[in-house]
Amino acid sequence: MDVTVGCPECAQPVADDEPYCAACGGDVRPRRGGTADGVAAATGPRAAPCPRCGEPVPGEYCAHCGLRRDDGTDRVETDLGAIGGVSDRGLVHARNEDAMALGLRLPAGAAAVLCDGVSTVRTPELAARAAVEAALDVLLAEADGPPGDGSNAATRRAAVTGERLVREAVGTAAAAVAALGETGDRDAPSCTLVCARVDYPAGVDGAPLITVGWVGDSRAYWLADPGGAEPSQLLTTDHSWATVMIESGRLDRATALADRRAHAITRWLGQGGEAEPEVLSWRPEGPGVLLLCSDGLWNYLPGAAELAAALPPPELGVSPVLIARHLTELALDAGGRDNITVVVIPVPAAGDRRDERPSPASRR
Predict the structure, then answer these.
(1) Which stretches in the chain have pLDDT values below 50?
(2) Contact in structure between 302 and 218 (CB atoms under 8 Å)
(3) Domain limits at 262?
């Protein structure tokens, strides 16, 4: 099946190496959005008034009453049409230390990065923001080499490219985080990371090649449509104390997860951390949703089956950003004790992919 998508303006097919539509001149370059948009919206030339006392707030806190100013990241929603995400401060934390960056590679792919700042260090939100932006730039790169002969060659090429770019993206993100602190400073900004790249190789029947990479305990799930050919499943394995105890056989699962050290991470981006990602690639056998999330969601809904059951039925045609909003609200209703970030990438069945055109509101 031809997986070329249409121009977002006129729906005419566009070549994957052209920045503009030949029919109408519409811009078909990669689109992106995420936490950086929220920060930019809140940092204009004039200080916003304090919502409590009305005085200007040029810094993080109001000098008059002490209220912390929203820096634009307390609630961020990104809608790129075929992919969407929500990042929320939650109900307890003073600031949102999560960050996300999403992008579409017209005509045949998507990418997303999600980072969770390590709250025990200084300014972890800066680490998360730097990491997602640096990683997304790499993940939105074009595939290597010519299309190849046949679907098998295209899929192999996409798999090699996907894994290489994911590893390169994590390395680039790690370097961006490292630049925020001095060598040996154990209080320097740090964060976890999970990212994904979705490719629709040329000449393939529509089934995508999904590549996921992660460092830490931010997660990726495959949530299959009801009656799907394969079950919903957690794709990542937490780099955490509990995982080490369980996999080594030193503690059973229930005991390890009940320990106060259960969520202590063993890999992270930043000073003293191991930034080597785990990476996996595969082609799903049926339709579903690729979900990236921070522990602000999975602490409440840790099981893949639970998350899949919480999704609106596919036949309702709910947009990705609305699904992300729905899952975020579930976490808030459950207590919202941590920052919550959710990214949703719907994946159609092989041969069923329709033109994916970003909504006009997503154009930046």
Answers:
(1) 1-5, 45-46, 145-149, 354-364
(2) no
(3) 31-42+75-362
CATH number assigned to the domain comprising residue 103:
3.60.40.10
* Alpha helix segments (H runs only) across the chain: 35-42, 124-139, 150-178, 241-248, 253-258, 295-298, 304-310, 320-333
How many structural domains is the chain composed of? 1
Distance CA 331, CA 300 (A): 6
Structure tokens at 231: 């079950």
The encoded tokens of residue 351 equal 């041969």
Quick check: 151 and 207 in contact, CB under 8 A? no
How crowded is residue 351: how many other Cβ atoms within 10 Å of its Cβ? 10
Beta strand 219-224 pairing with 209-215: unpaired
Does residue 96 lie in a domain region? yes
User: For position 359, what pLDDT does the model report?
Assistant: 33
189 to 129, 133, 167, 275: CA distances (angstroms) = 11, 15, 21, 14
In degrees rounded to 5, what are phi and psi of residue 101? -145, 130
Whether 325 contacts 75, CB under 8 Å: no
Q: For residue 157, is it within any domain?
A: yes
